[in-house]
Amino acid sequence: MNKYKILTCGLAIFLCACASNIPKNLALEKITHADQQIPDGWLLPVKEKTSDPAEWAQIYDDPILVAYLRRAKKVNFDIRIAQSRVEQAEADLKRARSLFKPRADVSVTASGASPVKDLGNIADAYTVGMNGRWSPDVFGKTRLVAEQSRAALAAQKALSADIAQAVLASTARAYIRAVEAEMQVSLAKTNLDFLRESRRISEARYRLGDTAKGAYAFAEANYQ
């Protein structure tokens, strides 16, 4: 019995030793290089800046759609308001940053005077004044104002991008629906022409006795 226990313990130690020899980073290497097996066609580059609507509209290969999108981006009232708010936020940020810098005011004045009895004797006087001030940000109030302006600018930029994207998406959706409606009308006209021709052929064959009345009635019903 003791022999079996000793053999069992020895076998367990041997298996543990074999397991410890397996490289620890083997599974990690397999996972790391797994992306190399993805087909190139599945990997589509995503651009960080999509200011030009033609960048994502090119998938439709429709220059008319691209022209509509660029026109909408240029004249849409909501987009223009959002852009003006971004410009206002940029101005507020510049104003907040200017509080960190010292200020200097310079003034120059000139004046002339002459006595009443001797008007030709004019005395000129010039005055130059200079004033400078700088307020150190001891309690961090100025820095807080600058951070708030920076956050407001980022929020306005994000809001402007969302508004532009919504307007352009709505424009593209309306254009695509218009194109689909036109295609459906064209398809309906083609189908109607086909049914009219089928009815004419069935009527001619029925009059010649080449087909039964049921086939002609079926073609007539389809046309109606």
TrEMBL record:
Keywords: Signal. One of its GO terms (molecular function) is efflux transmembrane transporter activity. It holds the Pfam family OEP. It comes from the Bacteria. InterPro entries: MdtP/NodT-like (IPR010131), OMP_efflux (IPR003423). Residues 1-19 form the signal peptide. PANTHER family: OUTER MEMBRANE CATION EFFLUX PROTEIN. Belongs to the outer membrane factor (OMF) (TC 1.B.17) family. This is TolC family protein. It comes from Hellea balneolensis.
